[in-house]
Amino acid sequence: MTQAQLTFYDTSRAYYASYYLQGFDELSRNGKLQIRVAHSLPERLKPAIQDTDWEHLLFAMALFKFQQGNHEWYFCIDTHDVNSVNVANHTGGYHLPLLQGVDVYFKVNHNPDQIEYTPILKDFRKKNSQCLTVFSNKTGVVPVT
C-alpha cells in the first residue's frame, strides 16, 4: 500500500489551523502520514482561493490535498464560528467558492438545520461534514478521516 501524503496549502497568514496542523504533525512523526507544505496554489482551487469577494474569510480556513496512490481529495477545515452564508454580500462562515470546489468541507460549527434551510448550503450538504474544534490525536480519534 502506498503511504498517504497530505499537502497543506500555506496562504501566508497566521490563522486558526494550528490545532489541526499539530495533529497532522503528530501523525507525521509516527510515520503514518507524509506531510509537505506548498506555497503555490493548486490549479483546481486557484479561482476559489483568489476570489477577492471571498478572500476575507481565508484567515480561518485550512486547505489540504490528501493523496494516496493515484487518488487525491481536496478538503478544507473551516474554523469560523458563523455557520451561515450570504451569497449576495459574501459574508457568513462558509467560503462558498471553496465549498463548491473541494471534495470535502469540514466545518467546525456545523449546523445541519442551517444547512437544510439555506438553499446553497443544502446543494452541497453531501460534502459538508462536522469537524471537532481540536485535532484529538492522543485518544486515537482523528476527525478528518
TrEMBL record:
It comes from the Bacteria. This is Uncharacterized protein.
